[in-house]
Amino acid sequence: MTLKTPSKLEKILAAGHYAVTSEVGPPRGSDPAHLEEKANILRDYVDGVNITDNQTSVTRLCSLAACIRLKLMGLEPVLQMVTRDRNRIALQSDILGAASFDIYNILCLSGDHQSFGDCAKGQNVHDLDSMQLLQTVRLMRDEGKFLGGGDIQRPPRMFAGAAANPFADPFEIRVPRLAKKVAAGAEFIQTQCIYNLDKFELWMKLVRARGLHEKVAIMAGLTPLKSVGMARYMKNRVPGMDVPDDVVKRMADTPKEKQPEEGIKICIESIQRLKEVEGVRGFHIMAIEWEEKVPEIVQQAGLYPRPEVA
Amino acid sequence: MIVADRKPIEEILETITAHQNILILGCNECVTVCEAGGKKEVGVLASALRMYFLNQGQARQIDEITLERQCDHEYLEEIRDRIDQYDAVVSLACGVGVQFMAEKYHATPIYPGVNTCFLGVTEKRGLWTERCQACGQCILALTGGICPVSRCAKRILNGPCGGSTRGKCEISKDVDCAWQLIVDRLKALDRLDDYEKLYPIKDWSSDRAGGPRKVVREDVQQ
Question: Among candidates B75, B130, B85, which has minimal Cα distance to B107?
């Protein structure tokens, strides 16, 4: 596999290692201390850190600035970029801004609808969709061109990623949809949090049947549950999330003070089972405001130490 | 058709409070079908206003006229001989009619009596839903006759997004996921293979983004 970018994430995947990424949500203010603290916790345990882009449509410090902070701290940021808030001028401009700081990874998303957030009365943009943003990143990188046709001086060198949700509906187009993202230029995939492993394995089987696992590096998404309340919230309130009853029951049957521990255990067991699934190339651990648990998960799942790549 | 909804009477009262002789002007087209601004609604609004002013002990003249359309010169001309009798007009036409009235009779204040909502259909009486955003470049041939621009909350051309659950949109259980409808329809047409075609980046210059639009047909101009 020839490398297309200087991305550490790309190198680790190309070397055949399981890649491990995590994510950090920027603060609701301009103080970077907490962000840096979370990044330092993750530093030695993951290969890349996603920075969310105004997730759930709640206004936060921008993903690009947070990525630059991480980069300056010596970490490998993954710039999440949603098409909700920016038109094609702003998207391309931010890609160049990120590239000027040698940010080498991007995750192209459409973003939650603004009605979930703190600006429900605002407009959304969606000039492009997530697949068209992928195409844009690849055009800028591979052809050195803007969408408008002009040449880019020093084109961005970004490893292009996308999300996939094996659990959203309609299920029958979940694999064709992945094929579309691959055709649009996705090189790595981070999936929605997996709690329904049977359904994920079925999806992966269909992915393999089309050979897509050889064309794109699929990283399995995981979010440790903190409590039965969180399990129920994820099951009932988060769109496109599939938390099976037996997972909720397992959390409910655990005494309240032991539930966080049980949630971590479920997460580690899931990683161990997913390691056996052909085509799973890494893990994306989204420990929402629980970053301090990521080192423990990575260690106990046998993913530590992280490989060194040149 | 253009679907509109009635404005709260309090809002209308606020706009006309300083005027003495008021014309309530209906339209016999779309707003009649969606029961917001036809002859019937003109009568209802005029009666309510008369009642209000009577209760306030204020004498006002409230007249009712409903034109065939308010988006064509010839029908708007029908009131030219009477317009000077009024200090204000409340038009129950869509925003198009209100503006065409204002352009034609620029010395008379024209106020909107409805909120213009969208281009849509009558699903059943009392339920109108959106179908088109007049983007100026129709892609329905590619999407099985279902429009993601008007019916997807993110107007995603390569959908559905990850928020599609049991056929519904992430914004509400009452909203169908447009892309579920498209997939169902492609399947019914035995065209599911078309789903994997990537829809290219759209030219939005024919949409609102390009500024005020016009259609020029020299072949039919006189």
Answer: B85
pTM of the model: 0.96
Chain A residues touching residue B204 (CB < 8 angstroms): 127
DSSP A152: P
Q: What digits encode the pLDDT tens for the residues A205-247?
A: 999 999 999 999 999 999 999 999 999 999 998 888 999 999 9
Torsions phi, psi of A190, nearest 5?
-115, 125
Chain A interface includes B8 (CB < 8 A): no
Q: What is the DSSP letter of B150?
A: H
Of all residues in chain B, the one with the smallest CA distance to A109 is: B161
Query: Which whole number is the average pLDDT over A188-206?
Result: 98
Chain B stretch 144-183, residues whose beta carbon is closer than 8 A to a beta carbon of chain A: 153-167, 170-171, 177, 180, 183
B96 contacts chain A (CB < 8 A):
no
The pLDDT-based confidence of B115 (bands split at 50, 70, 90) is very high
Of the listed ranges A1-5, A288-292, B51-55, B79-83, the least confidently predicted one is: A1-5
Angle at B213 between CA B212 and CA B218, to 5 degrees: 140
- SS3 call for A2: coil
Query: Using CA atoms, how far apart are residues A51 and A22, in angstroms rounded to an integer?
Result: 9
Contact (CB<8Å) B165/A113: no
Nearest CA in chain A to B157: A129
Q: Which is it for strands B21-27 and A77-82: parallel, antiparallel or unpaired?
A: unpaired
Does residue B119 have a pLDDT over 90? Answer: yes
A4/B contact by beta carbon, under 8 A? no
CB–CB contact B198 A184 (8 Å): yes
**A96 lies within 8 A of chain B by CB:** no
* Predicted ipTM of the assembly: 0.94
